[in-house]
Write a structure and sequence with these properties.
With 380 residues, this protein is an alpha+beta fold. The chain is built from eight helices and 20 strands. The strands form three sheets. Strands 5, 6, 7, 13, 14, 15, 16, 17 and 18 form a nine-stranded mixed sheet that branches. Strands 1, 2, 9, 10, 11, 12, 19 and 20 form an eight-stranded mixed sheet that branches. The chain is globular, with a radius of gyration of 21 Å. 46% of the residues are buried. Bound molecules: flavin-adenine dinucleotide. Flavin-adenine dinucleotide binds at residues 10-16, 33-36, 40, 43-45, 47, 50-51, 172-173, 200-202, 204, 208, 221, 223, 269, 315-317, 340, 342, 344-348.
């Protein structure tokens, strides 16, 4: 006898856990299914922390979504008495006309967001941890900081369960069908039926969505932790989340960023498209160039942090063709919605995406500005 629910959520990761919670909060009978544990270390959300910031200049509608995301992070924190968001501020560094600095300025001025600028001399004085080339300047966004990503997923999943959601873990969804009476989802353990289906399977979304023209490129990304030479300089009280846009400084590309000290050490990573691979081909094996990717920004810009590498982890980006998320109804059925292609910057939106996806499933629409994330933009 198949189990029957109002909504099945496939993938209880960053977006899926929040979606289960928002659905259950509205009284829906929810079944969340994940092929792994919740959370897990083989998807896109592990590594303890994710940056949150408001100054998005890539599209004007990201900022209203982020304002709601902040509010919803606060709500789940209060409801569960769990701190997930740490506002350390985000310090951006780069050349004045580079993408990072001009982007922060543009977004802050367009959306009236708080920020302050720092000249090179002010940067040197206020943040002596950095040794930057002449000409680099700074911008400080006080609302930015970091989220505890695995704890956030666990918190949402447990809160959803308390509200009645059922979670099936270590159970991969093989396929799904939809007809006039509902959706049927097949797993090794059996068939599950519901009125509606939400697909948010991260790096594995492509196989489940079966949309031939949808281009999703999965890339291998590394993140690492070091033991800084001068520990005292990198404590949260004196050291914010940071972000250096090196473009214009020799041949460095991408964005280097990092976090204040935590129990695991000083975490840093590089935002750039890593090696494109099939999701199951990306393992936790580490290669010598991975350590170099972690140490390079320290050698170049943060010499007092240069110390032994404590650990390196591998994670997955699911890149859409234009770097923007993809959130829409499935072209095969009004009963099916999906969210994918978070392109290495989606976690901060998980709280609001959970709400958006619950509205799409239960109401068929959302008041939030997600139109720009639709499939229509790939129509050609
Ligand atoms: C190294 C790194 C750094 C990042 N830094 C930031 C940052 O600083 N700030 C930020 O906002 N974002 C950041 N991101 C991006 C962010 O983490 C992702 O955009 C986000 O986690 C994607 O969420 P998701 O729900 O799509 O995928 P996931 O969280 O990976 O969830 C997908 C889930 O689907 C499950 N699943 C897959 N296939 C199936 C199936 N067939 N059946 C059942 N379940 C299935 C998986 O097991 C998984 O649990 C970073 C990502 C990486 C890799």
């Amino acid at each position: 006898m198949p189990s029957h629910h109002d909504v099945i959520v496939v993938g209880v990761g960053s977006m899926g856990a929040a979606t289960c919670y928002h659905l259950a909060k509205r009284g829906a009978r929810v079944l969340g299914i994940d092929s792994q544990s919740v959370p897990n270390t083989n998807s896109s959300h592990h590594g303890e922390t994710r940056v949150i910031r408001l100054t998005y200049q890539e599209h004007p509608d990201y900022v209203p979504l982020l304002r709601d995301a902040y509010q919803l992070w606060e709500e789940i924190e209060q409801e569960t008495n769990t701190q997930l968001l740490h506002k350390t501020g985000v310090l951006y560094m780069g050349f004045p006309n580079g993408e990072a600095i001009s982007g922060v300025r543009l977004a802050s001025e367009t959306h009236n967001l708080p920020y302050s600028t720092l000249t090179h001399a002010e940067l040197v004085e206020q943040f002596p941890q950095f040794n930057l080339p002449e000409g680099m300047v700074g911008a400080l966004e006080p609302e930015g900081g970091y989220l505890l990503s695995e704890l956030a997923i666990e918190t949402y999943a447990q809160a959803a369960q308390r509200l009645g959601a059922e979670l099936l873990t270590n159970e991969p969804v093989i396929d799904w069908t939809s007809d006039g009476s509902g959706v049927t989802v097949r797993t090794p353990g059996g068939m599950h039926t519901a009125a509606k289906l939400i697909l948010c399977a991260g790096a594995w979304a492509g196989g489940l969505l079966r949309l031939q023209d949808l281009q999703l490129t999965i890339t291998r990304q590394v993140l690492g932790w070091v033991q800084p030479k001068r520990l005292e300089l990198f404590q949260p009280s004196a050291f914010p989340v940071w972000n250096i846009d090196p473009n214009g400084d020799g041949d460095l590309t991408g964005i280097y960023y990092g976090f204040p000290m935590s129990g695991d050490g000083l975490k840093l990573a590089r935002h750039h498209p890593g090696q494109a691979m099939a999701p199951d081909a990306i393992t936790d094996e580490i290669f010598p160039p991975d350590e170099e990717e972690i140490l390079l920004p320290l050698r170049r810009y943060i010499p007092d942090a240069l110390g032994p590498v404590q650990s390196v982890k591998v994670c997955k980006y699911t890149n859409s063709a234009d770097g923007h998320f993809i959130v829409d109804r499935h072209p095969e059925s009004d009963r099916v919605h999906f969210a994918c292609g978070f392109s290495g910057h989606g976690f901060k939106f998980a709280s609001v995406m959970g709400s958006v996806l619950s509205e799409l499933a239960l109401d068929g629409k959302t008041q939030r500005p997600t139109g720009f994330l639709g499939l229509f933009r790939f129509a050609d």
